[in-house]
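Extended Data, record Polyphosphate kinase
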Amino acid sequence: MTITKSASSPSTRRKPPAKPAHKPAAPPEPPPVETLFFSRDESWLHFNERVLEEAQDPSNPLLERVKFLAITASNLDEFVEIRVAGILQRIEDGISMPQPADEGGLSPQERLDRLSVLLANFVQTQYACWNEQLLPALEKEKIRTLKFAQLSTKQRAHALDFYASEVDPLLTPVTIDPSHPFPRVLNKALCIALLLRHKRKGNTTTALGVVTVPRSLPRLVCLPSSTGSYDFILLHELIESQVDKMFPGYEVLSRSAFRVTRNSNLYMQEEESRSVLESVRSELHNRRKGDAVRLEIEDGANEDIIERLRTNFELDPWQVFRTKGPVNLSRMMNLPSEVKRSDLKYPDFKAREFKLDAKSTDIFDQIRKGDILFHHPFDSYKVVEDFITAGALDPHVMSMKQTLYRTSKDSSIFRALTDAGQSKEVTVVVELMARFDEDSNIRWARELEDAGVGVYHGIFGLKTHCKLALLVRRDPDGVIRRYVHLGTGNYNPVTSRFYTDISLLTANPEITAAVQHVFNYLTAEAESDGYKPLLVAPLTMASTFLDLITREAEHAKAGQPAGIIAKVNGLLDRATVEALYEASIAGVQIELIVRGMCSLRPGVKGLSENIRVRSIVGRFLEHSRIFTFENGGSPEMFCGSADWMARNLHERCEVVFPVTDPALRDRLRNEILGSYLADTRKARLLQPDGHYVRATHKGQGFSAQTHLMCLADPSMGDTSTPPADE
């Protein structure tokens, strides 16, 4: 059976025999394959719902719940300015044809109609969580966000002092009239709208006023409070209390905070006259002024204000979201850092530090003895930083090559590359279009160039998403060797503390030579036959994964050991999903750990009944990609930067690498994947109807992330394995 050649599942391709009149009706046939792909956008919303569940979960520390709520708001911002904006753009371009089955099989307008309802419901649930669960719990712990009228005399004096010295000099009040057009409100900038009436006698007309809340100031203003208490006022609330002074000739009839989200897609075109860096800079400027997609405004805002704003931004009514609380909940991310209450946060965790064995002279000596695998953040990311720094400082290292997708400000990795540029051959491939990191990546690219580093931007039209670092060294024995770091995560020491990722350090000649060929591809677009044993997108990865999945199906048909375990962030690629369906039909047992979007429908009899999909949302963001194929009893394991999504397999430069050392494979299979598959506390199981349900457990259940933290830091407590019945 080949799913891609038919719109029907195997049981629908045959016409059923005529039913005798005296027999009961046959059960309904399974739905066609087209209905067996969940919509990408709706699957994403289900993921954000799982994050919101963590904010609603009273078993999580209170301030961590606030963080989870802020994360859902940040996630939703990106979804609106990229995905919703993209659908609106298609409608504006006159595209009305239904999308492929793996996009839900709906036309852009139908997708938008469904999403508008789902988005409205989600926002309602967000603010219900804030108002009904988090605010009362915070207040119980003496953590309050106050209105200006609620401030004590001392707090009011402090707030007004802060306003006069820090806020007022940054404000620009604008009254909208023929000589003062509506200001260009930047994407996601918090503003205050005011309904004004001139105090001139006999004047009955109203005008709209706008004040932009300064982005450079904290959204939460700390107030003096009693010992053990924490009081804050939101910055826009403080500004609203003083707007009468900004418009002395007007009576302020009403005021309300609002925020506009704009289309943030970058529409790049290759032009010989412009470098990629110049093109990205130009498009970033346009992003700040993109078409409005959403208006958020406080619930209870004056209807005249809402209608004037909606008309100005050319929005339909469904694009107006009335918030029953602070506009932009993502700003509440700052609250936990302002409140010094360790009892309301996750317990401290100390990552396992890497140490050289007694007989190794340096990191290079250690790598020559065998591959080294790390699971961050349980294993400290410092070892990766030290590897790059060693390359910069070691006089025997002759050249360095590295990819950078996202890194952090003042990163030791960035400093090491800059320093190395003074004395070594250093090549860095910087991805300028890492979404929302474009500005910083442009700055870093220029600084690296100024330091003498050769900076390249990969292949136009393909994002460079692979995580590679290659050091070439003349070792003490006189032999020139390559040393490589391959990873699943960005070279970002900050996010490495709360993203789970895999790192591999190796001097394996086959792998390091292949990495060299990948860099040649990135800098010269020089394709090669020498990528094995790596899987490289967009060249060999997609077809190799399909071959590996098909091989498992053949093993199952032959009665040999067959099975697939895959841990990814997203599973949307239709060809991959169809290959997994085929493998399931052949009898392959398939375990999928998919953090976010998943278009595969598991548990459908006759099609995917051998496939189970789980999502784990917890303290750390699950970011590692791990793939295991039983291969008839000779298992193969891979890790890498790519998800099973079309963008990763066909539109990005990605690398997936094999893990061949038996001890490292055992760790991946048993300690890491085994823990995730046993999780009963943070795991949600995808059902055939598209909904997720929590895994069942007895007692406290088993948390993979907690277990892995305890293995790394025994001081945290119990390191027992999950009970056999869980």
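Summary. Confidence is low (pLDDT under 50) at residues 1-33, 267-274, 276-289.
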